[in-house]
Amino acid sequence: MADRYLNFTGTAPGRFLTRRLGLPQPARLHRWSPEHPALDGPLLHLTAGEPAQTTDLADLLARTGLDVRATADRPAAIVLDATAVADVPALAQVHAALHPVARSVATGGRIVVLGAPLSGDDHHQAAAQQALEGFVRSLAKETGRGRTVTLVRVAGPVAAAESTLRFLLSPKSAYVSGQVIEVAASDTTAPTDWSRPLAGRTALVTGAARGIGEAVAEVLARDGAHLVLLDIPSAQGELEALAARLDATALPLDITAPDAAERITDTVPALDTLVHNAGITRDRTLAKMPADRWATVLDVNLASVLTTTDALLKSGTLTRGGSIVATASIAGLAGNAGQTNYAASKAGIAGMTRSLAPRALAEHGVTVNAVAPGFIETRMTAAVPLFIREAGRRMNSLGQGGLPVDVAETTAWFAHPASGAVNGQVVRVCGQSLLGA
Ligand code: NAD
Predict the structure, then answer these.
(1) Which domains are delineated in the chain?
(2) What is the pTM of this model?
(3) Which helix (H) or strand (E) holds 276?
(4) pLDDT tens readout for residues 73-90
(5) Boundaries of each Ketoreductase domain copy (predicted)?
(6) pLDDT in tens, 117-134
(7) How far apart are CA 203 and CA 221, in angstroms?
(8) Catalytic residue at 5?
(9) Alpha carbons 131 and 326: distance in angstroms, whole number
(10) CA of 211 to the centre of ligand 1 (A)
């Protein structure tokens, strides 16, 4: 379902009218395309205090291909290194660095703040570093014009954050804003070709026949992965057409089938990335919800994810250096009337992700992360009644719905072999929805 309002505000009369009436004026977001793969303009590198890894960060930023400067009139991005901020007086340097330039960031630009992990034994440092979260989330809400603001907490060598910074400083993260991402202190290896980081790797995407799953398949294929595409047998036609287009293997299979994991292993004995995308809704308020509607949603969205994950880790089908990306939802974080079953299943995904991630990495060398989409323009949301659909689209800092490709790009960043230091994260792809924590 096209966003007619966004199209209208993109026209001259639309701009005039919405400005006169004080209505939201969402910016048309710049997403990645082969013709337009990078942000347009220089990157401003700023510091607050005296960070320890300034040279390493400067080298990393130079590798993004952006023109890195210490001053710029109209930067396309700003990276503020606030890792050294350890007390309240030092927070003034965050203000001093960004206050003069906040308004100069180009439309659709990025502000990325680098922070440090919260100290367990220095409560002044923890207060100052936690303060950065409130700061970033507020700046993201006030910045407007399609700009995004994120906080990346770097626990070790900044090089481990390269895949994350490349993602955030590119059009691939157009719909990710107001997020806090933690990058652990672990070794990562840079790919030989950053434009095809998944070359030689195999990925399986569930629910791939349409919507977000189809976009995930397309983006992972673009990044070089060989794909196994799974969806229910009744979607076999769409699945096979997509598989033919992407030179992939179609696997028509209900993910809740008792032998699903075995069937997957029979089809693909060694898997690098597993994307749990299949999901359903069966909305009713709790008082009107029969047990079967509850059970179906919990089965597809959560139980099958746990069962196949456990089985594929145990059998060694998921190989070392691999990744699992699960799909949560902002409904699971914020709650949604009529979706007790769905929100429970999606909150469960976040719980699984956070608990399993450290063990899966230690025992199997596999990372576990989750995307939490907000309002994404798909058949699932096209079925939502008009008024609620329009509210869902506008109630976020970017004033518009996301596209399936936005979730797909975030999934690809998680699946990237150089993202090995990104583990246990639940990242919302929601344009900073006003719903949820
Ligand atoms: P969609 O309904 O367009 O596609 C879901 C796909 O999953 C379909 O192809 C369907 O056939 C498949 N599927 C359903 N049950 C299955 C099963 N038992 N086994 C195998 N495949 C199965 O949905 P979408 O909007 O693309 O959503 C994809 C994921 O993103 C879901 O997990 C959904 O909950 C989540 N999500 C979507 C939004 C949104 O705004 N669209 C928001 C938050 C979360």
Answers:
(1) 39-183 (3.40.50.720), 202-429 (3.40.50.720)
(2) 0.96
(3) strand 271-276
(4) 999 999 999 999 999 999
(5) 201-374
(6) 999 999 999 999 999 999
(7) 9
(8) no
(9) 29
(10) 7
